[in-house]
Design a protein that fits this description.
205 residues; alpha/beta; Rossmann fold; 5-stranded parallel sheet; 4-stranded mixed sheet; binds guanosine-5'-monophosphate; ATP-binding; GK/Ca_channel_bsu; P-loop_NTPase; GMP kinase activity
Amino acid sequence: MDKGLLIVLSGPSGVGKGTVCSVLRNKMPELIYSVSATTRLPRQGEVEGVNYFFKSKEQFQDMIARDALLEHAEYVGNYYGTPRDFVERTLASGKDVILEIEVQGALKVKQKFPDGIFVFLLPPSLDELKQRITGRGTESLDTINNRMSVAVEEMNLLRHYDYAVLNDEIDAACDRIRSIIIAEHCRRERFLPYVTGMKAAIEKA
Ligand code: 5GP
């Protein structure tokens, strides 16, 4: 069986990765979402095992020590990481997996999974980005300023990605990502075993 595709959706803080990812998952229920582990406290309405696996610092460090994370990164004072086992098992079962992670983690995933599909979500403008970071309304002024300067630095990392998607409108951005995934499934390399099998069957007949 063909392995599934690993899709890594990343981009600067506040660009709307979370929203785009959840709308995309509704449009593509066959896409399996990897739930991350984090040391950040749950926000209102967030559910353990659905939004994140919420961990203490000690538990998170233990996961790192056990090599249970595919990647991890520190982001504005908290740790975030992708549980390795789930991703590897799901890909092996032939299903596509999507990670919605910040840029440092995405670069680490690229080292381990160079065949992954790396999608960089871009804000339509810097003003819009600032508004989105502020508009979340749950963060302190310090955190907002911190996130804004991180976001500007993060924009430089676009060159490591396969695709850039402008998040001017959520549905349009999701359609672009869906098109990327469909096109990636049509890459000729994926069909070589199929064609080889067909040729062998013809020759045998
Ligand atoms: P938030 O605290 O707003 O849920 O997420 C903060 C940032 O952490 C977002 O940019 C999100 O994409 C990123 N993030 C979520 N899970 C992971 C993960 O497993 N690994 C990494 N590297 N970043 C993550």
